[in-house]
Amino acid sequence: MRDPARILVVDDVADNVEILKVRLESLNYEVVVATDGEQALAVVGADPPDLILLDIMMPKIDGLEVVRRLKADASLPFIPVVLVTAKASPKDVIAGLDAGGDDYLTKPVDHGALVARVRAMLRIKALHDQLADLNAGLESRVAAQVDELERVNRLRRFMAPQLAQAIVSAGDEKILENHRREIVAMFCDLRGFTSFSETAEPEDIMTVLAEYHGAIGPLIRKHEGTLDRFTGDGMLVFFNDPLPCPDAPERAARLSLEMRDAVAALAQTWTRRGHRLGFGIGMAQGYATLGRIGFEDRFDYTAIGAVINLAARLCNEAADGQVLVSGRLAAAAEAVAEVEALGERELRGMARPMPVANLRKLRG
Length: 364
Description:
Blueprint: E1 6-10, H1 14-26, E2 30-34, H2 37-46, E3 51-55, H3 63-72, E4 81-85, H4 90-99, E5 103-106, H5 111-156, H6 161-170, E6 179-191, H7 193-199, H8 202-222, E7 226-231, E8 234-239, H9 248-272, E9 278-295, E10 298-304, H10 306-317, E11 323-326, H11 327-333, E12 337-345, E13 354-362
Parallel strand pairs: 1-2, 1-3, 3-4, 4-5, 9-11
Antiparallel strand pairs: 6-8, 6-9, 7-8, 9-10, 11-13, 12-13
């Protein structure tokens, strides 16, 4: 609301306008005038006042129709309207208030009543303006929070929630642009799943997958791994991206062995149902190119490079219960896990034999 408040006086009788104008200006209010309903609507549309003193009986458009139009215009802010009428019967007062008037004065206008009505209406106007400002600020904050939640939910599709929150809190997704970094890549899948899916009922397959994902998903989140993708029983997880992780080999080792034990416990239940399923993991350490791929409505965050292929080949080579790792990763994980060297092995798609080791269990 302005300071001083701006009051529009609407009356087709010049003497009435002059009396109200003099009295209001003596109270240091800014006064503008209109001599009929059409002019009043034009003044309000051009520069809405803080209060309107509106005569009811006017040519062209009477006061009741003016107030109806003003109150129906959603583009206007709240403007209190005091109806000024020579008719003071209850029926006339009710008609004015039903039309949208906020209060009324009877002619001839008493100075004390005028001052009291104007001050009361301007207090209400000030409260409405404060509430509007608060609502606008609240809407802005809610919109920002909704946007942040949407960003977090998008990021959660491929990384641990705490990592997604950290990126959103930083307010910068440049970290998701294409870049090169050393990572630890982990592939895992169920042994015998292809044969199982060829003969089992679809409901049994969905139940097994739900149990499988439900067991290892929380472990990935616990160790803050980035879930690249999963296809049925297969899954790719990597460490040290998109946020740096100085102990990536140790985290990967702990996660892989916890996953192996969790699925081993599930496998006992599956065996009792007649499902013969095992679990294998392959991991490697090396450099990859990482970043977002996809289009506007759907994107993924992925890693591309020889280290990904090596982890996939090691996963294919792993027997049930094995966690096969590259020689480089085995050396880095020895601090937290017992490592069994398996020598060099020919891996499909690899140009030369690769040193391979099996993670047996966590130390201590």
